[in-house]
Design a protein that fits this description.
The protein is of the alpha/beta class. Helices cover 39% and strands 22% of the residues. Bound molecules: the ligand CSC[C@H]1O[C@@H](n2cnc3c(O)ncnc32)[C@H](O)[C@@H]1O and zinc ion.
Length: 426
């Protein structure tokens, strides 16, 4: 039995307050926040002086192995980028490329304070391997392009991934089905995915309403918006994590609320691909769950959730000319508590007794953390992820004093770099 005590740490609590607490961890869970009984003897004590403890970040939408394509194709619009640069090179990626790309992503995410990620890509059993080995928590899905020749094979692989990995690794791994988008998956295919999701009891992860072009084409082709089309084909009945939702109307938002569609908002990627500004404030007011995501490292170009926290707050303030649009606490909750709901968990995203011990500790010994008027404000508006000191996932220390403890960073950098170079020469 492993017992860890975080002693006298500044802890961000569920109500948004920050207070000095002891946090007792036993195996994979937080067992106590506050006074710890002297009869409870820890195996390891971490000194919380000058440390801020928050729930680990939850990246609700990414394509981990795309780290290999970081800085490969920039300054392009989505469809041009996908069709002319990304899909041709992805077709050459090997299973080992996917593994080392995922390992690079996992290393980067842990070092920047993320403890859970939601992923969509191919060869996902290799991503699962990276997750198992690293101690990370993840929701994995095989992205399906629903046209011949690979549509049926992709669906079979998705079902196998679900059967092999859903709720494995002490429940650190979960699986969803992921039809890529309405423009790559025709209605007949989406209906097949819905049947499979119902048969397995799986939820659906899909890109929806990312660009104006997607919405206009969908209306032209099917006479309705992507969200309304998803209702028609039954996708919304399955439990949906929708990435982007940039161009959604009031009618779409009402449908999303009706079916409890959860949204992964990706401010960095939406800005870089010039996709637009998602109506986040409006969706939040409508009671929709919204988390934050980085999207892949080829459209961001990093997997740093604190950057997304910073961006979501600033983007929507300036968009609405309203400094109250997304306050500091809302942006942090989107990256943690709301993100947990979006990813489908009810026991992570908050520092709370009985919840999983997924915790990120920031070292506050740097200029950006002084003076200490308001620690939440410092975290959102001043700090950066190089201040991440320690990360605990499922009760295990995976980063200590900035050093990865389970995976070998030097080897990962070497392998990922070599594979990325070989890939562009193929
Ligand atoms: C078939 S696996 C997933 C697929 O999605 C591609 N992708 C990466 N970023 C985006 C995005 O912002 N919108 C749509 N599709 C995206 C990725 O390259 C894979 O091919
Ligand atoms: Zn995406």
């Amino acid at each position: 039995m492993a017992k860890i005590l975080l002693k006298n740490v500044q802890a961000l609590l569920e109500d948004g307050s920050v207070a000095e607490k002891n946090i007792a961890i036993e195996n994979d869970k937080i067992v106590k926040i506050g006074e710890v009984d002297t009869s409870w003897v820890p195996d390891q004590v971490l000194d919380g002086k000058d440390k801020l403890a928050i729930p680990g970040f939850i990246n609700t939408h990414t394509h981990a192995s795309m780290t290999l394509l970081r800085s490969y194709a920039d300054d392009m619009q989505l469809m041009d980028w996908l069709q002319n640069k990304i899909w041709p090179i992805e077709a050459k990626m090997s299973s080992n490329d996917i593994y080392w790309g995922a390992m690079l992503a996992v290393a980067e995410m842990i070092k920047t304070g993320t403890t859970t990620f939601v992923d969509m890509y191919s060869e996902m059993h290799r991503v699962a391997e990276a997750v198992e080995e690293s101690g990370m928590r993840a929701v994995l899905s095989r992205g399906m392009i629903g046209v011949a020749p690979n549509g049926q094979e992709a669906l079979a692989e998705s079902k196998k991934l679900f059967r092999d990995y859903h709720q494995t690794a002490n429940n650190r791994i979960r699986v969803m089905l992921a039809p890529h988008a309405p423009y790559t998956c025709p209605p007949a295919y989406l209906r097949q995915v819905v049947d499979s999701a119902k048969e397995l009891g799986a939820e659906i992860h899909i890109h929806l309403s990312e660009t104006l072009g997607e919405v206009e084409d969908c209306k032209k082709q099917y006479g309705k918006s992507p969200i309304a089309l998803m209702e028609e084909v039954g996708v919304l009945d399955c439990g949906v994590l929708a990435a982007h939702c940039v161009h959604v109307s009031s009618e779409d938002i009402a449908l999303m609320k009706k079916y409890n569609v959860r949204v992964a908002h990706n401010p960095g990627s939406n800005m870089k691909l010039a996709s637009g500004i998602s109506p986040v404030a409006k969706m939040l007011s409508a009671g929709i769950s919204i988390g934050l995501g980085t999207d892949g490292a080829s459209s961001n170009n990093n997997l740093d959730m604190l950057e997304e926290v910073h961006l979501v707050s600033l983007l929507h303030k300036v968009h609405h000319l309203d400094p109250l649009a997304i306050p500091a606490l809302t942006s942090i909750k989107m990256a943690t508590e709301y993100g947990a709901k979006v990813a489908g968990f009810d026991d992570i995203g908050v520092l709370k007794e009985g919840y999983k011990a997924d915790i990120t500790l920031f070292n506050m010994n740097s200029t950006q953390w002084f003076p200490r008027h308001d620690l939440l404000s410092l975290l959102v508006y001043s700090a950066n992820s190089s201040h991440v000191d320690t990360v605990i996932i499922d009760g295990k220390i995976v980063l200590e004093k900035g050093i990865l403890t389970i995976i070998d960073e030097e080897r990962i950098l070497y392998e990922a770099n070599k594979r990325a170079q070989d890939l562009i020469r193929k």
